[in-house]
Sequence to fold (379 residues):
Amino acid sequence: MKSSAESSVANAASLARARALQAQDNGTPTFLWGAGGMLAGEFLRLCELHPALNLRAAVVRSKTPLSESQPHLADARATVSSEEAESALADSLAGGARAAVVLALPHGESSGLWKRLRAKLGSDAERAIVVDLAADYRISDPRLYASAYGAAHADMGEAENFVYGLPEYQREALQGATRCAAPGCFATAIQLATLPAAYAGLLDSERPWILNGITGSSGSGNAPKPGTHHPHRHGNLWAYSLDGHRHEAELTQALAWRGQVASLHMVAHSGPFARGIHLTAALPLNRSIDALEVRAIYAEAYGTEPFVEVLETGAPDIRRVAGSNRASLAVSVRGEVLTVALTLDNMVKGGAGQALQCLNLMLDYPETWGLARAGLGVC
Ligand SMILES: NC(=O)c1ccc[n+]([C@@H]2O[C@H](COP(=O)([O-])OP(=O)(O)OC[C@H]3O[C@@H](n4cnc5c(N)ncnc54)[C@H](OP(=O)(O)O)[C@@H]3O)[C@@H](O)[C@H]2O)c1
Fold:
């Protein structure tokens, strides 16, 4: 672990490097699609805090200015049509530079757009550093994809070029990568909660792993829906996906990468708050082990991680992480069951923050640039 003197030297060096980058080339030109959306608003907020991303284009389909759809932003930003952004991106890449492309679009739309962009950009597409926030490229096994999404993928050949964007488990693959599929919000929570125990061989694959997740309303996106209508959501709580949740497929994939299988039983709930996910995982142990030993395994797995904390006492709540890129977790063992409670902000560690963390790794910037560890304190 670094001393505080070493940390402040490292921070000063990072800042100096950021300023040098900005002076050198005005940072990485960045093109965002879906700019009026929920996660795009969060990405734009984080962009304002980032020393080396230079937002060149914010694409919306409607004529609504960002000052109306994203009034929390401090910097005034003009929006453009997709055609205008596509031309600006082509010009940028034709000059030999890299450019960041962030797709904050509904499932199915981002792969359609990226397919079209690839055709338009030709070999210059190789210099585009793409992060997709949708589910389009998260699953590389066609059968697993079809079972989770109920249809064959329209661009499956490209999925294998995408690195799965969970930095805690994919850091090396993300460094220097040019394509990243950012994980789902629940998928981030269930993987961070289960993988240390699973990869340490502690869990029984035959008995069900019970995953109960509660999400805030921002997980449903910006368009008003009956389930996000304030008088119905406020003070209310309900379960959905009783027969299984799509995000289980991302955990199934992460287990398969290590030759493991599990019987996953996830039930998602809609909670009466805007930001955040609370997950309680009840995981069957395959041997007798005490809580201190399990905690040590989790502490070892996440000890050097900037954005995952393992609590020594108590249990995490949403207030602890709202607005931050941190996930916070606690473990407990009773008999044959390991319980992991985990919270994260679906908009940040479960969405735009994690996408930015991946982008930093892809662009060889310090991983923490633009990302807050501190939460808001009030959510
Ligand atoms: N919200 C979360 O917590 C969360 C977390 C992780 C991942 N994700 C994923 O991230 C993506 C964006 O989520 P979000 O919550 O930001 O969604 P959102 O608020 O619904 O925003 C989606 C944006 O995409 C645009 N859009 C909608 N339909 C479109 C279409 N048919 N063609 C082109 N553009 C379209 C919309 O533009 P207009 O404004 O022009 O209609 C909107 O700005 C989704 O794939 C979602 O599953 C969300």
